[in-house]
Write a structure and sequence with these properties.
The chain is mainly alpha-helical and 118 residues long. Helices cover 60% and strands 0% of the residues.
Length: 118
């Protein structure tokens, strides 16, 4: 199936960058819509609180636990080929110097060596 911003669900890149709005299944594959929500949750409830709590040991430990749990979920999804390529596309339009983008690129690289499941 052709979408507005990708040719198929296994594309590495967008045909043109999507706008900063909620996308639909006409714009991108369903897996990407889902992974965008999951990445937002990972970022807002895992990554950012962990970064902000670095100075406070008790808070850091609590936030680290949540970050690890969210990251595990994300890693399970990345093993699926459709989600792998969805994450790859999403971070392709992020600032590649940001820590969150670099960390997700690391996860993609880590799981690129495992053949993603269909």
């Amino acid at each position: 199936m052709n979408y507005l911003y990708v040719h198929d669900m296994y594309d590495d890149n967008y045909t043109s960058p999507p706008p900063l709005r909620r996308l639909t299944i006409l714009d991108v594959p369903q897996a990407e819509i889902e992974i965008r929500d999951i990445l937002l949750c990972w970022y807002e409830t895992g990554f950012i609180p962990l970064q902000q709590s670095m100075a406070l040991k008790k808070e850091f430990t609590e936030h680290k636990h949540l970050f690890v749990r969210h990251t595990r979920t994300l890693c399970r999804l990345i093993k699926c080929k459709a989600y792998f390529f969805a994450v790859k596309r999403v971070i392709s339009i992020w600032d590649n110097r940001s820590l969150e983008c670099q960390y997700l690129a690391y996860l993609l690289n880590k799981y690129a060596h495992h053949s993603p499941e269909a």
